[in-house]
Write a structure and sequence with these properties.
single chain, 360 residues, alpha+beta, Alpha-Beta Plaits, 2 domains, 8-stranded mixed beta sheet, 3-stranded antiparallel beta sheet, flat
């Protein structure tokens, strides 16, 4: 394992101290906001560097005591015991610091647009899509994020043919990006009278939420149409022509928002359009940078089946990392989803560390 870049660590500490001094002096709002974000990004790194250096200093002191011929024998033995306990801690701190130094996805700290669509399986697939979206809603609640539905298309059983929502909060995309892909379910559908197990699927797409400065959407490149919202019935049917459909003419991307007032629908539809265009640009860059490296985790390849939810056996299996959890209820209520996502994050970090070591 390669040594930590001590010169880089020193520069990071110096930068953190410089920003802190500038913040204390005060700046104009735009500069202050930028410095505050950079300070917040550096803060975990600085804390990890200082903890590591403190542990190393402690280790050096203990080793000096253990080698001191004039030291009391009992104190020497005690020092050696503490050395044995401290060395593994230092190794863990060094590994944690290596992870913090890894290149970050520029979109990781952003909010996200989550799109869930029924795949193969008819009404059962739509019901499963609704279950998946409920799982993400509860996971968002547990993380203190805000979920806002942008558009929804239901079937007569309360399932979702398609649902698009904005999930807002810091670091949403860094977690939910691993959910992009095909999700498969094996269970006895509510529509099945003979107790047979069916296999259905739903697709999930997670896009980093774009900001106005990321994508410039020219007025002449879009066509905006208003129309009457449609649904399965009840409160989801909008009786006025408030639904908005935006077509991006250069790419053919179409976005519909039908859950709010016409003004709000236009705003939300533009938000989704920017995010989809931003993702198109990100994929172009990612493809150019890593054509040779095929990574299953975090690739966002939605043509791949990523996870199976088997209700009769009570298990959920993520095929990218061969992880199986035998508590499907906890996963579907959102509380167990973190275990899967955390394992995917760890796997991705291991891949990045391996690349870092090989290229060092």
């Amino acid at each position: 394992m390669s040594a930590l870049p001590e010169e880089k660590l020193e520069k990071l500490l110096e930068r953190w101290e410089t920003i802190q001094a500038e913040l204390n002096l005060g700046s104009n709002p735009a500069v202050y906001a930028k410095l505050t974000k950079e300070f917040a990004d550096l803060d975990p790194l600085v804390g990890a560097i200082r903890r590591l250096r403190s542990s190393r200093d402690e280790l050096a002191g203990l080793e000096a005591m253990a080698k001191d011929p004039a030291a009391d024998k009992e104190m020497v033995n005690l020092a050696r015991d503490e050395i044995d306990a401290l060395r593994p801690q230092i190794e863990e701190q060094e590994q944690a610091l290596r992870i913090l130094l890894l290149p970050k996805d520029a979109a990781d700290e952003r909010s996200a647009i989550v799109e869930v669509r029924a795949g193969t399986g008819g009404d059962e697939a739509a019901l499963f899509a609704a279950d998946l979206f409920g799982m993400y809603q509860r996971y968002a609640d547990l993380n203190g994020w805000t979920c806002e539905i942008i558009s929804i298309s239901e079937n007569d059983l309360g399932g979702y043919r398609e649902i698009v929502a904005s999930i807002s909060g810091r670091g949403v995309f860094s977690k939910l990006k691993y959910e992009s892909g095909v999700h498969r379910v094996q269970r006895v559908p509510a529509t099945e009278n003979q107790g047979r197990i069916h296999t259905s699927a739903a697709t999930v797409a997670v896009l980093p939420e774009a900001e106005d400065v990321d994508i410039d959407v020219r007025p002449e490149d879009i066509r905006i149409d208003t129309m009457r919202a449609s649904g399965a019935g009840g409160q989801h049917v909008n009786k006025t022509d408030s639904a908005v459909r935006i077509t991006h003419l250069p790419t053919g991307i179409i976005v519909v928002s039908a859950e709010k007032s016409q003004h709000q629908n236009r705003k939300l539809a533009m938000q989704v359009l920017r995010s989809r265009l931003y993702e198109v640009e990100r994929e172009k860059v990612d493809s150019a940078r890593s054509e040779a490296r095929k990574s299953q985790v975090g690739s966002g390849d939605r043509s791949q089946r990523i996870r199976t939810y088997n209700y009769p056996q009570g298990r959920v299996t993520d095929h990218r990392i061969n992880l199986t959890i035998h508590n499907i209820d906890r996963v579907m209520d959102g509380t167990g989803l973190a275990e899967i996502i955390d394992a995917l994050v760890t796997q991705r970090q291991a891949e990045l560390l391996s690349d870092f070591e090989n290229n060092a």
